[in-house]
Amino acid sequence: MRYGRRLSLPIDPWPQASLGERMSVGLVLTLLLAVPLCAASAVMVASATIAAYIAWSYDLGASLRDAVERQIGRMAGGQERAVRKV
User: What is the C-alpha radius of gyration for the chain, rounded to an integer number of angstroms?
Assistant: First the structure.
């Protein structure tokens, strides 16, 4: 035989709440979940944009440096290719 109070959850947690009240609570909870999701996606888009800009500027800088080295090589009159030691 069991002793003590038996734990049981009610079927309806808000028995006196109207349908409009339930919908408004659900909408608020949904919006509270949507705000961090939108913020996280905005951070991801911004970081992807910054990463793409860094990669693009690095490629642009490398191609400009190669062009300048070729131009300097032509101006010096050398027929050999300018080789950059890394």
Answer: 33
d(C-alpha 25, C-alpha 28), whole Å: 5
Q: What is the pTM of this model?
A: 0.52
- pLDDT in single tens digits along all 86 residues of the chain: 566 677 776 677 777 888 898 899 999 999 999 999 999 999 999 999 999 998 888 888 888 888 888 888 887 775 555 566 66
Report the alpha-carbon distance of residue 21 to residue 32 in Å, rounded. Answer: 17
Would you list the DSSP string of 10-62?
-S-S-TT--HHHHHHHHHHHHHHHHHHHHHHHHHHHHHHHHHHHHHHHHHHHH
Q: What is the DSSP letter of 8?
A: -
CA dihedral of residues 58, 62, 64, 67 (deg, nearest 10): -170
